[in-house]
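Input structure tokens:
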């Protein structure tokens, strides 16, 4: 049979059977009286409609039936597909969706944020994050904030190292007397734009915390050293007063000796001719008699005149201990006292500020010496 006839035959088989019209009209339900018992419902039995099946012609003898498929191959292919599905499912369940992340910072007490959420107040930080890109932020007072983008992957920990840089408003300003002195920071030369920094010098971007400032290398001046605390966002001013390496020798003071008063001539005895003249006694005034001056009285009077004291009034800024002629008076300025008149060596010392000043003064009798001295530099 040709293929066209087979197609027409299949269309006839698949064509729906039309519905047969009803032979009887539907029963009419009469309303029953209210007091009448319900009538039994009668169900009619319908006969099934006849189905008309087309007569299929016998297949020609030349057409062979379709070959049967090998069930063993189909079963093997199904088993292979099932195994592949199981492997894919297991791999999807076993594959991790997060990665390890380790963050190290300098300084170590910095605050760490991941995707703008704080995760730690110090370094190092170890944790897990979903795979992909994340933003790591590190910040600390006195340092510039730094943001880093990191790609978290599977496998070993992803290590991120961040070193912060101090801000420009954190540092110190060093002034010295005398100026133009080499500056050292924490035991190393402090470098400037054109070599080692020299006073007066302003240093910025210095890490907050405790540091050691030094001025050394000049033979004419003693080394100077001081520990300073650098605060975040603040420029600290530091003053250095240098001492000479070789102090001038003390001025020798002349030794004062008490002058010897000239001895008065003793009265000579009168000649005999003069004694023959009668002597009349003069009346003695009433009251206590004053003894005649002797040689000892004259010496004491000269010594008192030599040791006559003079008044001095001295002040310094800032206050300091007072030394006179190499001896510590045990007092500090303002100093007002009686000292011997003449030339004196004054020294004012302030150990906690490493300040000192030497002065030579002359105190004259009858005058009050009054003077004020400045121990700091001209900028103070």
């Amino acid at each position: 049979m040709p293929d066209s006839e087979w197609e027409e035959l299949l269309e006839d088989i698949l064509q729906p059977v039309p519905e047969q019209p009803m032979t009887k009209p539907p029963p009419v339900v009469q309303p029953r009286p209210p007091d009448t018992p319900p009538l039994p419902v009668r169900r009619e039995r319908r006969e099934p409609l006849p189905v008309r099946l087309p007569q299929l012609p016998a297949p020609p003898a030349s057409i062979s039936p379709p070959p049967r498929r090998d069930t063993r191959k189909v079963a093997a292919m199904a088993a292979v597909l099932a195994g592949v599905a199981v492997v894919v499912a297991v791999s999807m369940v076993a594959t991790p969706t997060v990665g390890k992340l380790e963050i190290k910072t300098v300084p170590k007490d910095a605050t760490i944020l991941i995707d703008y959420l704080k995760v730690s107040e110090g370094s190092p930080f170890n944790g897990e994050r979903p795979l992909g890109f994340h933003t790591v932020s590190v910040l600390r007072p006195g340092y510039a904030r730094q943001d880093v983008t990191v790609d978290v992957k599977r496998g070993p920990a992803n290590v991120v190292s961040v070193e912060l840089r101090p801000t420009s408003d954190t540092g110190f300003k060093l002034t010295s007397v005398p100026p133009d002195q080499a500056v050292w920071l924490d035991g190393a030369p402090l470098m400037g734009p054109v070599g080692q920094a020299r006073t007066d010098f302003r240093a910025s971007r210095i890490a907050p915390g405790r540091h050691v400032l030094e001025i050394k290398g000049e033979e004419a001046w003693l080394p100077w050293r001081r520990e300073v605390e650098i605060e975040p966002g603040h420029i600290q001013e530091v003053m250095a007063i240098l001492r000479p390496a070789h102090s001038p020798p003390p001025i020798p003071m002349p030794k004062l000796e008490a002058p010897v008063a000239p001895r008065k001539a003793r009265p000579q005895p009168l000649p005999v001719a003069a004694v023959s003249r009668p002597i009349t006694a003069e009346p003695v005034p009433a009251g206590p008699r004053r003894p005649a001056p002797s040689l000892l009285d004259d010496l004491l009077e000269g010594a008192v005149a030599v040791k006559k004291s003079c008044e001095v009034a001295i002040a310094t800024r800032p206050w300091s201990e007072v030394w006179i002629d190499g001896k510590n008076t045990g007092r500090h300025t303002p100093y007002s006292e009686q000292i011997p008149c003449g030339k004196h060596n004054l020294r004012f010392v302030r150990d906690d500020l490493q300040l000192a000043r030497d002065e030579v003064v002359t105190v004259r009798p009858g005058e009050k010496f009054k003077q004020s001295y400045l121990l700091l530099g001209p900028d103070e």
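Confidence is low (pLDDT under 50) at residues 272-276, 302-306. The first strand starts at residue 98 and ends at 106.
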